[in-house]
Write a structure and sequence with these properties.
The complex is a heterotrimer of chains A (364), B (582) and C (144). With 582 residues, chain B is of the alpha+beta class. Chain B has one domain (3-36, 53-116, 196-544, 575-579): Cytochrome-c3 Hydrogenase, chain B (Orthogonal Bundle), CATH 1.10.645. Chain B is built from 17 helices and 14 strands. In chain B, strands 1-2-3 form a 3-stranded antiparallel β-sheet. In chain B, strands 12-13-14 form a 3-stranded antiparallel β-sheet. The longest helix of chain B is centred in the middle third of the chain and has 30 residues, at 245-274. Chain B starts with a strand and ends with a helix. By secondary structure, chain C is of the alpha+beta class. Chain C contains 3 helices and 5 strands, in the order αβαββββα. In chain C, α1 (21-37) runs parallel beside α2 (54-64). The chains are: A alpha/beta (364), B alpha+beta (582), C alpha+beta (144). Chains in contact: A-B, A-C, B-C.
């Protein structure tokens, strides 16, 4: 009788061997479905998906980058890098972490591509120089341009992490000396997810990977291919300093009385109102803080071309009152914040009903 | 018969590095060539921008030594504008830089360097009970029970048995150069995982002061985080800034956990592992010249005498004499491009001081894809910086030697203790493992200072001094029409300096000369090799050219950061000459 | 500047500590509980990312109160689960690294899912128990 090929164990089996129950998946799944605002019942489906998945082969390509994205991922609290790369995925090529160098490293990449043809995920950090045939960045003598095309060819999906890979980032900042380009300017025939940020929030990177492993499909994306779950609202929408904005209380400098009382940083150049990211809710480094909480305005680092948008310290010229969702002030005594307001608003009730009856209404 | 061994990519580093080595029939390296293969052009991108924003761009030179370029940049602007900053801001910077040291060095040891010495697969053969005894014999670290090591081994076994080796695939497991017994390997694997969890905690210190890590925020003129005056700050009330009474005590706790890990895990592990590889105390240091710029104003003042780390140059391994360094002196620091993919308007033979620095792409390497570089021509995106024409090594070894030579008491005690334990003379420091050990020692030296800086900060606050930012020169209208300055620091990888020229409130020229350029740069006009190249030519014999673990060991001992080293670029020589400062 | 700067009196411009958010969440809890009673299954309310002040949180927790059930789950870190004084409304708090709260939510229904044993774990347990009995049998045989 021909023997069936030996399949790698599922994540559930691996965990069981270590004496850990399925509750561990459920726990992470409930965290993830909360931060990704997934509909009711998603946590158990997510947990089941994870338990039945096998470790996903991931090939991580580093191009015109600073390794900040990888460093950020190591700061992920949920899941931790350890459980991500040892329990959830098989990180088959990653310059900063892998043991092998040179020829052996390249062989590992080729082996992963051959064994998981059509099924592996490519993660890219860094932009790709396109000028002069791409000679401004090479690995093993091969241009980034060629390596990206060859590696993405048989991938299931490509995840561009960091603003450089997603939008070109700093190498593409004026005058773009090397002709740096974003990944989706080069790869046009694969599903691409952009997770921008300089660097991205680690839990957003890990969360998207987990979602992909579990559901084997892309999360819902916006017009810039960003997962709506993490990039659906502006930082200003969810900022804890928004009540000061509403009351017109602004820090005028970095160490004045207003700054010390945590007033709104709009006048010292905060880009929160035009920046879509989850810093104000997920926060950084296990929830310690985020830039605004630590006194510096948002730089807007998850937006395309943020380096060339007129200056970190120049106040936004747009009238903010015309921007973003208006708050239902009366019901909240002018004090509830951003999306928090939604809890009491009719808007929320509608979306809630949509979740309950996905087949009714909202038929676009 | 000579053979060319090419290692590209060098992994477990920051950035894109290629090493080509010529070996003789015995496998001995006769000459080595270090090539940085990626360029972005951040300095050219900086031109014409607001100097107050330069830190944000410069910081993106590197996300591993995140913050060092931010610090060097704000210091360059402050130096140019004679902009004084509050003592509290200096103390906050000290704490952030020191946390970066401890974080960076521990991660380097366990996650970038360890696999050169630690055989993961051998750890499967270890006896957890014997591992526990070993761990308890070298340290009082609490996590050392047989059950703890059995769990780690079980996890590792499941991982290996699953058949997907991930980051460990293709490693040189079983190579005869691995000398640790299985138990030491298992202990190191356990600490590899521990250190991953530990570093997340350390990074929180940066998030408190800078809002996030990697890439925390900085501010010209001080620190961006005002001390919270929210009366309910301790409860995390809506009006709080991060920096409040609770955060300061959190910082104190983090410092305690940081230094405990260094004392109980990092230092004992370094000594234990090094004791199995004593032959690596006899190779891998080639230049014999060491340089530091100095850092850590202990009282928050700008007084150079108050700096923990001194500045200076040691030549020819002579610890009895220290030369002074002046970064503003055009005859001292110069960058050469004879073997770099750049051109100078005055010809490739010239050396230029960074204030006059220019950079024009002039790639004359092979067209990719290529097999081998032509090292008679340009072969790297790195320049070759020189001090008075001499190649220098910068970094932990240079700093520890400088502290030792200048008679720093704690350094002498610590170095003598470590050397005695390893039964090695001080000359053993001039080596691959000497460099690795120096990194461990300085982690402890610097980490141990943090509590004192925090105490000073808290004392200032209690005395009513809560200023963290000086607004006096914030507005560009207060600046002179033209100014130039240099900002320097000791980054974890070595002396780092940024030179800025400001004209009409904008950046007219910006140059960064970074540690890995000093260490990883190519040969200069005279054919003098850089530090990596000289180190690899110092008594390295490759047992198996297909598994060049010997090259990895010495290169990793420098902790390369290549995105830092290659940062300059100018696509257009004409444009450059029009804004060049002479 | 004096030390007073760190402890100034509350300025009249300070926003109120209780923002009204706990009230809004409680209303939402009531609405969802009503739906559960009507037979629907409703999603949890995630408190982790909600902009609540510490006073809001304390107010919410206090007003939901404690009911008859309190459980601790040790799996990939600690979790605390308790039924509030309102049957069918559960408070679920997961702790992550260093005992920090990783996520917090209010769940609705007979019991939160994390309290149930998973079928896969039960069958693994059955196998483990059978194997343990078998080896005990074998030991007994060799003893005699």
């Amino acid at each position: 009788m021909p023997q069936a090929p030996k399949l790698a164990p599922t994540l559930g089996e691996l965990l069981q061997e270590r004496g850990v129950s399925r509750r561990a998946f459920l726990k992470y799944a409930s965290y993830l479905s909360a931060v990704m605002a997934l509909p009711a019942g998603s946590a158990s489906a997510l947990a089941e998906g994870l338990a039945n998945a096998r470790r996903q082969s991931v090939i991580w390509l580093s191009f015109q980058e600073c390794t900040g994205c990888t460093e950020s991922l190591t700061r992920s609290f949920s899941p931790t890098l350890e459980s991500l790369i040892f329990d959830l995925i098989s990180l088959d090529y990653h310059h900063t972490l892998q043991a092998a160098s040179g020829e052996a490293a390249e062989k590992a990449r080729e082996a992963a591509m051959a064994e998981n043809k059509g099924k592996y995920v490519v993660v890219v950090d860094g932009a790709v120089p396109t000028k002069d045939g791409g000679l401004y960045s090479t690995i093993a003598g091969v241009s980034n341009l060629d390596m990206l095309k060859a590696t993405a060819k048989d991938a299931m999906a490509v995840i561009a992490v960091g603003t450089c890979a997603a939008f070109g980032g700093i190498p593409k900042a004026r005058p773009n000396p090397t002709g740096a380009a974003a990944i989706d300017e080069i790869i046009t025939d694969k599903p691409i997810i952009n997770i921008p940020g300089c660097p991205p929030i680690p839990e957003a990177m890990a969360g998207v990977v987990s979602y992909l492993v579990s559901f084997v499909k892309l999360p819902e994306l916006d017009h810039l291919r960003r997962p709506k779950a993490f990039f659906g609202e502006t930082i200003h929408d969810r900022c804890y300093r928004r009540p000061f904005y509403e009351r017109g209380l602004f820090a005028e400098g970095f160490d004045d009385a207003g700054a010390r009382q945590g007033w709104c940083l709009y006048k010292v150049g905060c880009k929160g109102p035009v920046t879509y990211n989850a810093c104000a809710t997920l926060k950084w480094n296990g929830g310690v803080s985020f830039p605004i909480q630590s006194g510096h305005g948002c730089l807007g680092c998850s937006e395309p071309d943020f380096w060339d948008q007129g200056g970190f310290y120049r106040p936004l010229s747009t009238n903010l009152r015309d921007m973003g969702p208006a708050l239902a002030g009366a019901a909240l005594a002018g004090a509830a914040l951003g999306a928090g307001a939604a809890w009491a608003s009719r808007r929320h009730q509608e979306s809630y009903q949509r979740e309950q009856n996905p087949n009714e209404g909202d038929k676009k | 018969m000579t053979q060319r061994v090419v290692v590209d990519p060098i992994t477990r580093i920051e950035g894109h590095l290629r090493i080509e080595a010529e070996t003789d029939a015995s496998g001995a390296i006769k000459a080595a060539y270090s090539s940085g293969t990626m360029v972005r052009g951040i300095e050219i991108i900086l031109r014409g921008r607001d100097p107050r924003e330069a830190w944000g761009f410069a910081q993106r030179i590197c996300g591993v030594c995140t913050l060092v370029h931010g610090i060097a940049s704000v210091r360059a602007v402050e130096n140019a504008l004679a902009y004084e900053i509050p003592a509290n801001a200096n103390l906050i910077r000290n704490l952030m830089i020191a946390a970066q040291y401890v974080h960076d060095h521990v991660m380097h040891f366990y996650h970038l360097h360890a696999l050169d010495w630690v055989d993961i697969v051998s750890a499967l053969k270890a006896d957890p009970a014997a591992t526990s005894s070993l761990a308890q014999s070298i340290s009082g670290y609490a996590k050392s029970s047989p059950g703890y090591f059995a769990d780690v081994q079980k996890r590792l076994k499941g991982f290996v048995d699953g058949g997907q080796l991930g980051i460990f695939a293709g490693g040189y497991w079983g190579h005869p150069a691995y000398k640790l017994p299985p138990e030491a390997n298992l202990m190191a694997v356990a600490h590899y995982l521990e250190a991953l969890a530990w570093q997340r905690d350390v990074a929180r210190l940066h998030a408190i002061f800078g809002g996030k890590n990697p890439h925390p925020n900085f501010l010209v003129g001080g620190a961006p985080t005002p001390l919270s005056t929210d009366p309910n700050a301790s409860g995390g009330g809506a009006a709080a800034t991060t920096l409040n009474i609770v955060a300061l005590s959190e910082v104190r706790d983090i410092i305690g956990r940081m230094t405990a890990f260094v004392d109980q895990v990092y230092v004992p592990d370094t000594l234990a592992i090094a004791s199995f590889y004593k032959d690596w105390f006899a190779r891998g240091e080639g230049l014999g010249n060491f340089m530091t710029f100095g850092d850590f104003p202990s009282d928050g003042s700008a007084n150079p005498a108050k700096r923990l780390l001194p500045a200076g140059v040691i030549l020819n391994r002579d610890l009895s004499h220290i030369e002074p360094v002046d970064l503003n002196d055009p005859a001292q620091v110069q960058e050469f491009v004879s073997h770099s993919w750049y051109d100078y308007s005055g010809g490739k033979a010239k050396g230029l001081h960074p204030y006059d620095g220019e950079t024009t792409f002039a790639y004359d390497g092979p067209k990719p894809p290529y097999e081998q570089l032509d090292v008679d021509k340009g072969y790297s995106w790195l320049k070759s910086p020189r001090w008075r024409g001499k190649a220098m090594e910068v970094g932990p070894l240079a700093r520890v030697l400088m502290l030792y030579a200048s008679g720093h008491k704690e350094t002498k005690e610590l170095a003598d203790y470590a050397l005695k334990k390893l039964d090695a003379p001080i000359t053993a420091m001039f080596s691959t493992l000497g460099r690795t050990a120096a990194r461990t020692l300085e982690t402890k030296i610097i980490g141990d200072q943090m509590k004192g800086w925090l105490d000073t900060l808290v004392a200032n606050i209690k005395a009513g001094n809560v200023a963290v930012h000086n607004a006096a020169k914030w507005e560009p209208s207060t600046w002179p029409k033209e100014a130039k300055g240099v900002g320097f620091m000791e980054a974890p990888r070595g002396g780092l300096a940024h030179w800025i020229v400001i004209r009409d409130g904008k950046i007219a020229n910006y140059q960064a000369v970074v540690p890995s350029t000093w260490n990883a740069g190519p040969r200069d006009m005279q054919g003098q090799p850089g530090a990596y190249e000289a180190a690899l030519a110092d008594r390295h014999v490759l047992a198996n050219p297909k598994q060049p673990i010997e090259i990895q060991r010495t290169i990793h001992s420098f902790d390369p950061c290549i995105a830092c080293a290659v940062h300059v670029a100018d696509p257009d020589g004409n444009e450059l000459s029009s804004i060049r400062i002479v | 500047m004096t030390t007073q700067a760190l402890h100034p009196s509350v300025s009249p411009q300070e926003p109120p500590r209780l923002t009204g958010m706990s009230e809004a969440v409680l209303a939402e809890v009531a609405a969802r509980l009503a739906e559960v009673v009507a037979g629907a299954s409703v999603p949890p309310i995630d408190l982790t990312a909600m902009p609540l002040t510490s006073e809001d949180r304390a107010d919410l927790e206090q007003r939901l109160g404690r009911g008859e059930v309190f459980a601790t789950v040790e799996s990939a870190g600690r979790s605390q689960i308790w039924e509030t004084q309102f049957s069918g409304v559960w408070f679920v708090r997961h702790f992550g690294e260093n005992d920090r709260i990783a996520s917090e939510c209010i769940e609705f229904g007979a019991a939160p899912e994390i309290l149930f044993s998973h079928r896969a774990d039960m069958s693994a347990a059955a196998r483990r128990l059978a194997a343990a009995l078998q080896s005990a049998d074998a030991r007994e045989k060799t003893d005699h």
